[in-house]
Amino acid sequence: MPTPPTANILLLDDEERLRSLTARILTLEGYAVTEAGTARDGLRRLEQGDYQVVLCDVKLPDGNGVELVAEIKKRRPDTEVILLTAYGNIPDGVLAIKNGAFDYLTKGDDQERILPLISRALEKARLQQRVRQLERQVGRQYTFDDILGRSPALQQAIELARKVAPTDTSVLLTGETGTGKEVFAQAIHQASTRRTKAFLALNCSAFGHDILESELFGHRAGAFTGATKDKRGLLEEAHGGTLFLDEIGEMPADLQAKILRVLETGEFIPVGDTKPRRAAVRLLSATNRDLATEIENGRFRADLYYRLAVFRIHLPPLRERRQDIGPLARHFTAFFAAKLNKRTDGCTPECLQHLEAHTWKGNIRELRNIIERAVILTDGPRLDVPDLPLDLQLNDTAPASPSLQLSAFSMAAAEHLHIQKVLLHTGGNKTEAARLLGIGLTTLYRKIEEYRIG
User: Which CATH number belongs to the domain containing residue 430 in this structure?
Assistant: First the structure.
C-alpha cells in the first residue's frame, strides 16, 4: 500500500522542463505536487486545493511572483511561499519577505537548500494551522462535551445543566470567579432549542450604570449626550436566543427592577423611548456573590432573585475537584505549546503534585495563566517545578522535585530554599533580595541560575 503524501505543494513555474524536474524530485521525497505554468492557473489551483507550501517563480507570463506572494497570503494565510528566480537581487528579496514570503532562492546556486527549506516552511505552515484550530476552539460556543473534568462535583453540575438545557427556564449559576460559569452558560444554550439563535453575554460589573442600561435595553437618538443614533440593546439583539448576564449581583437596583419586568412581561423600554418593546429571550445569569446575604443587606431584590434562581447550579471551585487539575493542565499546556512553537508535552509528576497541592483562589483562570507562564519559561520537554511561580514551588504540602533535592541536609539545599523564600518575600525584586541576603547582585544572579530558581 503506498505511503500517503507528507504535504501538498503547488509548483508555479513557466519553464516546463525545470518545473517537471523539480516536481519529480519533490515527488520522490514523498510530497504531492501540483504544477501550474501561469499566475492565473496557480491561483485557480490554490482555490481548489489545500496546499501547505507554494514554490513560485518570480518571472511568470502573466504576473510577477513577488507581487503574487501578497495575493497568495491573502487567500491562504497559513500557506508558506518560497520564491525562485534565475537572477536574484536584494530589492526583490526584501519586497518578497515584506509581502509574506517564507524565503527567496536563486535557482541553481541555492538548489541544495530547497528541500531543507521546504521542510522548515512545512513545519511553520502546520504550526500556524494548529494554532488557528486551537484559537477557534477557544473562541467557539462550548458544549458539555468540551467541559474537562470527571470529578463527582463537576459531573453533578453537568448533569443538572443537561436536564435544564432543553427548557426555557431561567438558570442561576453560582460559584467563585474563574470556575467556568460562562462556559456552562454556552453549553446550556448549545443544548437548547435556541441553539441556532444568538448567544450574547454581558458582564454587569464591567460598566457604569448608564452604559450598562444602554447595552441592555438600547437607546433612542438624543437620549443622552453622544447618542447620535438609535441603538439596539442586547435584549433585542438576542431575540429568540439566550442572554447571559455575568456578575448580576453587581447590577444597580433600578436596573434590577427593569430586568424583573422583562422576566415577568417580556417587555422593556429603550433609554429615551416611551414605547415598550418585546424581548423573547432566555435569561441565564451568574454571580460569585452570596445573593441571600445581598438581599438581607438590601443590595439585591428578593423578587428578582426568585425569578432568576428558578433553577440554580453551583460550580465547585478547583480545590474541590483536584482530580481535574491534571487534564486541565495538559489541555492548557498543549494549547500554549502550539501557540508558542514549543514541543512541551504535559507536566512531570512532581510538577503535577505541586499544581494539585495549590489552593487555586483564581480557579481555572489562574491555572490557565500559570500554565501559560510556565510554557514560556520552560526549556524542557515537560513542565517541571522550577517553571512554576515561587509560591507554588515553595508549597510545603507538595513533595520537592528531584531537581530541587540536592540533599535534604546539604548546605546547598538550605541556601536554595532560603533564596527562594527571600525572593518570594520581595515579590521577585532581586536587588532588594540581594540586600537582604547580604550578597552582591551578580552573586544572586549566579545562584539563581545554578539552582534554576524560576
Answer: 1.10.10.60
**Coil, helix or strand for 314?**
strand
Q: For residue 60, what are the domain limits?
A: 8-138
322 and 294, same domain (yes or no) = no
Q: Which residues pair with 284 in a beta bridge?
A: 171, 244
Per the DSSP assignment, residues forming a β-bridge with 316 are none
Please indicate, yes or no, whether residues 150 and 284 belong to a single structural domain of this protein: yes
Separation of CA 430 from chain center: 32
First to last CA, the chain: 51
Beta bridge mates, 133: none
Q: Report the domain count for the chain.
A: 4
Q: Cell numbers at residue 116, please?
A: 531543507
pTM over 0.70: no
Put residue 42 in one of left, alpha, beta given phi > 0 → left and psi -120 to 50 → alpha. Answer: alpha
Residues 198 and 345 in one domain: no
Task: Report the alpha-carbon distance of residue 60 to residue 13 in Å, rounded.
Answer: 7
Give the SS3 label for residue 219: strand
Q: Other CB atoms closer than 10 Å to residue 53's CB: what's the count? A: 25
Q: Alpha-carbon torsion 386, 390, 392, 397, what sign?
A: positive
**450 shares a domain with 370:** no
CB atoms within 10 A of CB 446: 12
**pLDDT (tens digit, 9 = 90+) per residue, 240-296?**
999 999 999 999 999 999 999 999 999 999 999 999 999 899 999 999 999 999 999
